[in-house]
Amino acid sequence: MPHARTIRAPGSAPRQDARTRWIWLAGWPVTAVFVLSNAATPLYVLWQRDIGFSKGTLTVVFAFYIVGLLGSLLVSGVLSDRLGRRPVLLPALALALLACGVFATAGTVTALIVARLLTGIAVGATVSAGMAAVTDVAGPHRRRLAALLASSAMVFGAGLGPLLSGVLSETLPAPAVTVFAVEAVLLVTAVLVVMRMPLPRPAGAPARTAGTAVRTWIRMPGVPRGSAVRLVLGIAVFAPGITATSFVLSLGPSLLFGLLGTGNRAVAGGLAFLMFAAATGVQFAVQRLPRRTVLLAGSAATAAAMAALVAAVHGASVTALAASAALAGAGQGMGQLGGLSLLNAAVPPRRLAEANAAFNIGGYVPAGLLPVTAGYLSDAAGLTTGATLFAAALAALAAAGALIVLAGRRHADDQPR
C-alpha cells in the first residue's frame, strides 16, 4: 500500500529548512524601513544651510516623525492582528517610497515635515506588523530568537541609514537625490520579500456589536490581561534608551559642529552608525542572560550615556561624545530586547502586533518630547546648557526605570528560552 501524502493546509508552516531561511529574511522589511528612518540625519546640516532654520526647528522636524509613528501605532497593531501582516506592511512600504521622493526634492521646512511624517507612519506600521511577522515566521518554539532578530533588524537598519547617507552624500553628486534613490531600491526589495513571506492566516476581527466597530479597530493599543506589568517593565528601560538615541540623531550633527567645527556628513553618519552598531552588538552579547539582568544593564547604560554627554559638552570632547552615543545605543538595545522578549513570552500571536505597538508608543512619546525641549533650550540658553539639562532629566528617568524593574522582579526574572 503506498504511503499517504501529507497535504499541507494553506497558511501552514513551511518545511523546517525553508522556515529557517525565512526567519532571517523576515527581518529585511524592518531593516529597510529603518534605514529610511534615520537616512536624513547627516543631511540636516545641508538642509539647514540651504533652507535656513534653527536647532529648535530641526528637533520639531524630527518630532513630526514621532507624530506620524504614534498615529500609525494607534491603528496598525490592531489592523495587523485582525487582517494579517501583509495588508499592513505593503501600504507601509508604499508610504516609505513616497517619503523617499519627498525627501529627494525637499526645498522647504514644510517638505521635510511631510517627509518625516510619512516616514513615521511607515515605521509605526513596520514596528507593529513587521516585527510580529518575524515572530510568526519563527514559530512558537523560537520566540526568543524572533525577539532578538526583530529587535536587531530594527537597530541595524537605524544605524545603516545614516552611515549610507553620510558616505553617499559626501562622495557622490546631488546628495539628497542619490541617498533616497538608493533607499528606494532597498524598499523595493523589501516589497518583494513581503509578497513572498510565508505568513499564517490572520485571526480575523472578533464579533462586533453595533456602534463598536470604530472603537475596536482604532484604539489605544494594549496587552492581554496579565501582561501589563511586563509591558511597563519593558517601557521603563526602553523609553529612556530610545530618547537618548533620538537626542543624538536630532542634535548630534550640531554637537559635532560645535566640538569639531565640521559639518562633514560622513562623520555625522558614522556617529549614528556607532550608536546603533552598539545597540545591535549588545543584544547578541546579552541574549542568554536573564531578562531582569538585561533590563537593569540597559538602565545603567543609558545613565552612563548621559554622564558621558555632559562630559562631552563641557569638555569639548569628541571621544566622550562617541562614548555617549555607544552607551545610548546599548541602553536602547537592551531595553528593546528585554521588553520584546517579555512580551513575546507571554502575549499570544493574535495580540502580538498590538502589544508591539503599545510598547513602542510608551518609548516614542518621551523620545519625541524631550529632544524637542532640549533643542529649544539650546536655542535659548546655548547647546551646553540644553544638553546638560536633558542629560540630567534622562539620567533620572533611567534610574527610575531600574527601580521599577527591581520592584517587578517576579515578572522580569523569567529565564531566557
Automatic annotation (TrEMBL):
Alphabetized SUPFAM superfamilies for the sequence: MFS general substrate transporter
Signal peptide positions (record): none
CDD domains cross-referenced by the UniProt entry: MFS
Keyword Lyase found: no
The entry's keywords: Cell membrane, Membrane, Transmembrane, Transmembrane helix, Transport
Transmembrane segments: 21-45, 57-76, 88-107, 113-134, 146-168, 174-195, 228-260, 266-286, 293-314, 320-345, 357-377, 389-408
Main location: membrane
Subcellular location: Cell membrane
A Pfam family hit: MFS_1
PROSITE patterns: MFS, SUGAR_TRANSPORT_1
Keyword Membrane attributed: yes
Domain Major facilitator superfamily (MFS) profile span(s) in chain numbering: 1-410
Membrane topology reported for the UniProt record: Multi-pass membrane protein
Designated name of the protein: MFS transporter
Organism: Actinomadura violacea
